[in-house]
Write a structure and sequence with these properties.
By secondary structure, this protein is mostly helical. It is built from 26 helices and 6 strands.
């Protein structure tokens, strides 16, 4: 009796140890069965053969096969918003026997899976209801629950159609597989060990950067150790060394300009910081979150008021219009070449812009790898290679052809600068004509976005549906009409022009403290209230039904209202007394940071693209990590902008100003030179100001 009992126990133990093997083999056999049920074309035979060989070797625990299969994972967590399932990209792409056993070479492919595509108008979370109701229900931010990105490691012989069949076969073994028939698109494939090699443009860019560093260092040494006081000021040697001198460019950056509107320094830098905050939120959702539902909860709470934070960009437009027209009107009695004015503005913008375009077209795609690198960063490079000429001509605002997504602002701002210059030309010819032209332009700037929004049924506020953004920012055709185009963004710029006109007529230095402290505080409070209301429109639009007329009114007025509030605060700080606000915005360190804001704007998304598009797994969203990332990007962008200022921006501006000044001295009549305070003395041109 005891003998038979002992035998039974031993058999039970052996059987219990065999259970994992049995389950393992059963799972592999199920995959093999699914693959055999697919219809394979003749050219797909090598892929099927290698895949079946792989799976049989997985059952035998062969290292190479287990290595490949272990790099894959089954999609999980998508019901809580985890869209990305990438397995182990590096394990697939870098096996240790890549050179010694090329017959085991693999390929990493990313497929997009759409589980259901019948969106409902209202979210439903009934635990006893069908999974279909949940998959089809929208989230607050539009992040999809029914969309997955799935990365798979497969034999290198497999092409996209074969990968699609393998993905479908594996998906049918998941929890949702028997219920949902997915639509699958293979987005990209990368062969192990085969990474793109840098081309000529890459080495030209690196050489250019090194050359600029050497020229700047040599120029600085020359100005400190070799240059003499009696050297010709117009010699090429002097112009180059003075333009590239690091010490002089640093002094120009940090110097205190008594004529500038100091509160605008703080506004400009804080606006740049807000832009980074917006784009950080956008890029982490593009990279993929493991807890998108938590992201939605944050938006649904009090912080949802920031849903329309993109309106802060209109602060840049308002300040740009103010400063441009103020500069023109302050010299209205002098002879001005308006083409030179536009050229100076072009030079001010083109340095960082051109460098970023060059980097994106020639270098960026070689700076990283990852599951989504090919169809994100490389796509950006391809667009830049095709459209860089149009971008440098300040004509490119079409989202399909934008080189660097945030660069839309640059041509838009320049086109508005041309508009303001034309209005100034009319004003200089005839004051009434100029004011009439400005009024007409202002009215049109209100009408155009409203009419387009109503006519084309466009959203009142863009980028509220992040699901649409994830499908591709270049496919968001509607932003081309009321977000990127200068004719729809002119309202805020013209508000700035009006404020610049007022500040020229009533110089702040002559009308300081004309507004009482009480009214200054009241006016600032009202302006901040208007800004808060404009920000809250994003949350209002999300939680309310679409109405075309209401959307048209919001599209016409919200950015103008924001710009008016910004200009009122600037005016009250200059003409009145606004405690705390003036002190904060006029903080001395904001001066140089303000001058670096353009470089910060142009470079910050480069950092985000490199960081997030090279990720191997989804991100976890929480306030602490989000704040830490924003701070890190801001600090690094400041450093990059500082380097661009020293090596590119300041030298280019100085060289351009030198040649423009020489040309004006040559062409300007002697009598006009005397009237403007320019006289000859000892063979040199001097000015009374000197």
């Amino acid at each position: 009796m005891w003998h038979f009992l002992l035998i039974f126990i031993c058999i039970a133990k052996v059987s219990s140890h065999d259970v994992p093997h049995t389950r393992h083999h059963a799972a592999i056999d199920a995959v093999i069965h699914k693959l055999r049920l697919e219809t394979w074309e003749k050219y797909e035979a090598p892929c099927l053969e290698k895949t079946l060989t792989l799976l049989e070797n997985v059952k035998n625990y062969t290292l190479w096969a287990t290595w490949v299969w272990n790099a894959n994972t089954i999609p999980m967590g998508n019901l809580y918003g985890s869209r990305d399932n990438f397995g182990n990209f590096d394990q697939c792409m870098k096996p240790p026997w890549l050179e010694s056993h090329p017959e085991f070479k693999t390929k990493y492919c990313v497929s997009e899976i759409m589980l259901a595509d019948k969106p409902k108008k209202k979210a439903e979370y009934d635990p006893l209801g069908s999974i279909d109701e949940y998959l089809n229900s929208p989230t607050t931010t539009g992040l999809p629950v029914n969309q997955l990105l799935w990365g798979m490691c497969v034999p290198a012989a497999c092409q996209a159609p074969s990968v699609l069949k393998m993905t479908r076969s594996l998906y049918e073994l998941t929890a949702l597989g028997p219920h949902q028939a997915p639509d699958i698109i293979v987005k990209s494939c990368q062969v192990a060990g085969e990474f793109p090699q840098p081309g000529l443009g890459y080495y030209v860019f690196i050489t250019l950067i090194l050359a600029l560093v050497v020229i700047a260092a040599a120029s600085t040494y020359y100005r400190l150790r070799i240059a003499s006081d009696d050297e010709p000021s117009d010699s090429l040697e002097t112009v180059i060394t003075k333009s590239f001198c690091i010490i002089k460019n640093h002094q120009d950056l940090v110097k205190d300009n008594k004529e500038e509107i100091k509160v605008m320094n703080g506004m400009r830098f804080l606006t740049a910081a807000c832009v980074i905050t917006i784009h950080e939120a956008l890029y982490i959702t593009m990279a993929g979150l493991i807890n998108s539902r938590d992201y939605d909860k944050v938006v649904e709470g009090p912080t949802g008021i920031l849903f329309h934070l993109d309106v802060v960009v209109d602060t840049f437009f308002a300040m740009s219009g103010l400063l441009h027209i103020k500069g023109l009107l302050s010299n209205i009695n002098r002879q001005q070449n308006l083409f030179s004015v536009l050229w100076k503005r072009y030079v001010r913008l083109i340095g960082p812009f051109g460098l970023v375009i060059f980097y994106l077209a020639s270098v960026s795609k070689f700076t990283g790898t990852g599951p989504i690198w090919m169809f994100t960063n490389e796509m950006e490079s391809e667009v830049c290679l095709k459209t860089w000429r149009l971008s440098l001509l300040m004509l490119n605002t079409d989202p399909k052809f934008l080189c660097h997504a945030v660069s839309w602002y640059v041509p838009c701002d320049y086109q508005l600068t041309v508009l303001a210059t034309v209005l100034f030309y009319f004003y200089k010819k005839n004051r009434r004509l100029g004011l009439t032209a400005f009024g007409t332009a202002a009215v049109l700037s209100l009408i155009i976005p409203g009419v387009l929004t109503y006519w084309l049924q466009l959203p009142a506020i863009h980028f509220l549906d992040l699901g649409k953004v994830l499908r591709g920012i270049r496919d968001c055709w509607e932003i081309n009409y009321t977000y990127l185009s200068s004719y729809s963004r002119a309202g805020a710029y013209l508000v700035g022009v009006a404020m610049g006109y007022i500040m020229t007529l009533y110089k702040p230095s002559e009308y300081r403290n004309t507004v009482s402290k009480t009214w200054s505080i009241i006016g600032t409070a009202i302006s901040l209230g208007v800004m808060t209301y404009v920000l809250s429109l994003g949350q209002y639009v999300v939680f309310n039904e679409y109405d075309a007329m209401e959307a048209a009114v919001i599209a016409s007025t919200n950015r103008v209202a924001w710009a008016v509030a910004i200009c009122v605060i600037i005016g009250l700080c200059e003409y009145g007394t606004v405690p705390i606000v003036t002190d904060i915005l006029s903080f001395s360190y904001f001066g140089p940071l303000s001058r670096l804001s353009y470089g910060i704007y142009m470079t910050h998304t480069l950092l985000m693209q490199r960081n997030y598009f090279a990720l191997r797994s989804p991100l976890k969203f929480d306030t602490f990590s989000y704040t830490l990332n924003v701070t890190g990007v801001l600090a690094t962008s400041i450093g990059l902008s500082f380097a661009i200022w020293l090596l590119v921006e300041a030298p280019l501006i100085k060289i351009s100003n030198h040649f423009l000044a020489n040309k004006s001295k040559i062409t300007q009549p002697i009598e006009d030179q005397k009237k403007n305070g320019i006289q000859h003395k000892n063979g040199e041109i001097k000015t009374k100001a000197a």
